[in-house]
Amino acid sequence: MFDVVAALDKVLDALDREAREPTKLRAVLVPELKRVIEAGHAAAEAQLLKDRDGMRCARALSNLTDAVVRAIHDAVVWRLYPNDNPSTGEQLAVVATGGYGRGTMAPGSDIDLLFLLPYKQTAWSESVVEAMLYVLWDLKLKVGHATRSVEECLREARADMTIRTALLEARFLFGTRVLFEELVTRFDAELVMGTAHEFVEAKLRERDGRITKAGSSRYLVEPNVKDGKGGLRDLNTLFWIAKYTYRVRDQVELVAAGLFTAEEYRLFERCDEFLWRVRCHLHFVTRRAEERLSFGLQPKIAERLGFGPRGGLSGVERFMKAYFLIAKDVGDLTAIVCAELEARHAKRTPVLDRWIGKFRDRFRATAIEAEDFWLDHGRVNVRAEDAFERDPVNLLRLFWLADRHNLAIHPDAKRLANRSLRLIGHALRADEEANRLFLEILTSKNSPESVLRQMNEAGVLGRFIPDFGRIVAMMQFNMYHHFTVDEHLLRSLGVLAAIDSGRTEEQFPLVSRLVNAIHNRRALYVAILLHDIAKGRPEDHSIAGAAIAQKLCPRFGLTQAETETVAWLVEHHLLMSMTAQSRDLSDPKTIEKFAAVVQTLERLRLLTILTVADITAVGPGVWTAWKGTLIRTLYDETEVVLSGGHSEIARTDRVRLIQMGLREQLPDWSSEVFDAYAARHNQAYWLKVDGVRQFKNAGFIRQAIEAGRTSATDVETDPVRGVTELTVYSPDHPRLLAIVTGACAAAGGNIVDAQAFTTSDGFALDSIFISRAFERDEDEMRRGRRITASIERSLKGEIKIAELVADKHPPSTGRAKTFLVPPDVAIDNALSSRETVVEVTGLDRPGLLYELTTALNRLNLNITSAHVATFGERAVDVFYVTDLTGTRVTQPDRQAAIRSAVMEVFAGDVAVMKAEGLEALVAAPPPREA
User: Fold this and answer.
1) Which distant-in-sequence residues (6+ apart) come within 8 Å of 174 by Cβ?
2) 879-925 pLDDT tens trace
3) What are residue 200's phi and psi, to 5 degrees?
4) Which end of the chain is more exposed for a tag (fewer CB within 10 A), N or C?
5) Mean pLDDT of the chain
6) pLDDT tens, residue by residue, 556-566
7) How far apart are CA 699 and CA 703, in angstroms?
8) 3-state DSSP: the chain helix, strand, coil percent, rounded to 5?
9) 482 or 368: whose pLDDT is higher?
10) Which pLDDT does position 815 carry in this prediction?
11) Would you say residue 359 has pLDDT above 50?
């Protein structure tokens, strides 16, 4: 066991007696202190790995810092500024404040120090403080410091709530204790007394701002352990409020203060320990104050915490589920306490208002239509502690009432519900009334997302539907999904409810119209809730989810026909998205194949609405106008087939309407010029490109023609999606796509989307979207212009793209990767009547599309269209190809050559996976899921 005190005593004893000048002292002292700190950190890390106690580690690091600060003070006073008989003005107390004041630290935490003086600073105290700080800075420690008298502390804390909070956690280290005691006494008497409501209000407001900045959901898949929702700062805020309001000195006093039951306090301690454990590991692994649990770090932390694969989940997914369950528990604790304190302090109503409110609550009580509940200051509360024991259906009725009357739920009722989860068993799940209430909540016209989220956070939803309980707090270890599975499902419901209420007509015009034409509204809401319910299982989640739907729907009270509809929607919930984004929608075979699966117009409408809600709820910026246009085109084309109409006529009419819309936006174009321009684009262009981009392209092409240019490029940034759009207009030729993708690869640009069209007179119009590299628009635009300049120079023959790519990106062997995506190649001649479809799935990286197009070109294949999509780290690139004679590739040896050439592109990824012992996964990749 490392003895820090003994080690520091040894350092002080060995100090050169001649080191009586600050620079000399630091030269001798700093290297020795660094060694002690490194040894202390190593011991703390070893202990953490051994006993897995985060609080013990955090306290050990705080004790180490205490001892180092004390040793620095002793060395400075002993060697530089001895003062055997200090005057009254030369008293000094060194105090830990803020997070350090709590006596817990992570390896990279700030050291917040207060140098407390009796009144104004003297030359001696100024010299001591300055010398101490220089040593701390030379040690490369992050120090927050203030030198103040007691009077100055109180004055600053009165004006600044952050300083007041820091002083609330002040802890005496060494020096003149009477100064510290005076500060604590006067702080209580002059600042705290009578200002609890002001402090509570400020801390809750500060929490809201912090969470907005860090991410408003506690289920973000790359959470901030310190500042994110459900993180350590939430627990800190809770304790600050309790300490300020009830003047408790230690966390254990929270029970006596009446804020927690003994069981809830044990939960508080468990959350605190786990979050400190994760945070300390984060700092140890990164060797810096890293607070974000990023994808790259999650596997390392999972391994350190001892999480291995089990039950269809990887070790990292099991770890992150444990993390999110802790974050949920933190949310439960802070919601209960903050709501109580907010109601008691921050939102006090005048006496008369409270009296009138009670009268109004009694008057409205009959309207609640439930004898076990009443209105408590405008919130639904239980009348008695045994309300759930007497009738477990009340656990559903509580949330049903809140939804039906648009009321908040009283914290006491939430708390009691959480403590009554054992009452939710087979009998309640089979209860007809309970299931009726649940279905009414789910399909409510009010706010089903909000009420179901409250049910989820209280634990009721996961107990009432155990299959849902399995995916609570479950993350999917990929870059596509921004939230845990349960949060994604609830957000999908929120999107559906918004569409259903007519609030999204501008954003989602198609589905806002379709939602009023469907006959299976209940089935749609249930399908949205269940579409990802089987995630995390070894089998395909769509098929397993359909089986769960077959089991649950009759229980909810759905008819046999509704049950079949829900099961079909869950099984095929990815079909429309995948078809729209990775198939040629101008090919009649694509539409025929899709229509054959869908079969009815009602299913088509339901699947379209589900698809839009599902994509939108993945995360900010995932739904785009481009995807909206693809979905709309697929819907329109399929509707014609299913309604028995003639596809070409309907398509011509739609194209004409789209062209008329663009014509209205170009009033300065003559009819002859516009008609000539419109005739250059084929139907696929008009149906697959959104109106905003059509308008931009028209201006872009006209400028190029008027300037006498046969080739032109343009760059535009999209900060919302985090991408940069490159537009290329050029005479078409077989290597054009390789040139464009190669220029992106040479600049390190990762292509996340692409659209390519050819005009009737042989010009290509390509839109390429690359991931953003710079935060500032000016920097990103410069990067984009460098790429387009390379494209133009290559088109002119001034440079060779292959050489440019080779110079910037030399071939690499196996690389260590955060994500492992087994590569797969599917070659299909049944998907198109004209071309062979080559679908490639693999780990995305800069230059991938260039390497794939180059590999296909080397095989003398003509790429007639490419459909590029990325789902986080997973790339799904689909190429429609023919041989040089314009026919499909049918020969087995040619198909084998294609497969071999494409797999060679992923040779490095395969090597990494084999090194990880995943040969079976390489040989048989799992089904693609989004």
Assistant:
1) 70, 73, 93, 94
2) 999 998 889 999 999 999 999 999 999 988 888 878 777 776 667 67
3) -60, -45
4) N
5) 87
6) 999 999 999 99
7) 6
8) 60, 10, 30
9) 482
10) 39
11) no
Residues in the chain: 930
Alpha helices in 187-294 (DSSP H): 196-214, 232-246, 253-256, 262-286
Work out the end-to-end distance of the chain between its first and last CA atoms, rounded to an integer number of angstroms: 50
How far are the Cα atoms of 602, 612, 817, 836 from residue 642, in angstroms, in the given order?
10, 20, 46, 26
Among residues 679, 681, 707, which one has the least CA distance to residue 694? 681
Cα gap 209→197, rounded to integer Å: 19
Check residues 221 and 652 and name the one with the higher pLDDT: 652
Most confident of 249-253, 286-290, 881-885: 286-290
The structure tokens listed for 502 are 């007519």
| Residue 698 confidence (pLDDT) above 90 | yes
Q: What is the mean pLDDT of residues 216-244?
A: 81
CA distance 489 to 169: 40
Q: How far apart are CA 323 and CA 271, in angstroms?
A: 9
Nearest to 200 by CA among 239, 258, 154, 157: 239
pLDDT more than 70, % of the chain:
91
What is the spatial distance between Cα 497 and Cα 703, in angstroms, rounded to a whole number? 44
pLDDT band at 481 (very low <50, low <70, confident <90, very high): low
Position 632 pLDDT exceeds 60: yes
In 333-366, which positions are buried (b, 16+ CB within 10 angstroms) versus exposed (e)? Answer: bbbbbbbbbbbebbeeeeeeeeeeeeeebeeeee
**Among 406, 354, 393, residue whose Cα is nearest residue 376:** 354
Q: Confirm if 524 and 496 have CB atoms less than 8 A apart.
A: yes
Q: Would you say the C-alpha torsion 813, 819, 822, 825 has a positive or negative sign?
A: negative
Tell me how far apart the alpha carbons of residues 913 and 766 are, in angstroms, rounded to a whole number.
35
Say if residue 494 is exposed, middle or buried (CB neighbours under 10 Å; 0-12, 13-18, 19+): buried
Give the 3-state DSSP-derived string for 668-705, with helices as H, strands as E and coil as C: CCCHHHHHHHHHHCCHHHHHHCCHHHHHHHHHHHHHHH
| φ, ψ dihedrals at 409, nearest 5° | -100, 135
Question: What would the two tokens of residue 877 be?
Answer: 């690139």
Question: Which of these, 113, 361, 99, 367, lies nearest to 240 by C-alpha position?
Answer: 99
- Angle in degrees, CA 479, 484, 487, rounded to 5: 130
Q: What is the pLDDT of residue 274?
A: 97
Tokens 């399995």 belong to which residue?
Answer: 470
Residue 11 has pLDDT above 50, yes or no: yes
**Separation CA 747–CA 771 (nearest Å):** 12
> What are the backbone dihedrals phi and psi of residue 754, each rounded to the nearest 5 degrees, phi first?
-160, 145
Cβ within 8 Å of residue 682, ≥6 positions away: 586, 757, 758, 759, 760
Tell me how far apart the alpha carbons of residues 867 and 875 are, in angstroms, rounded to a whole number: 11
Read off the pTM. 0.77
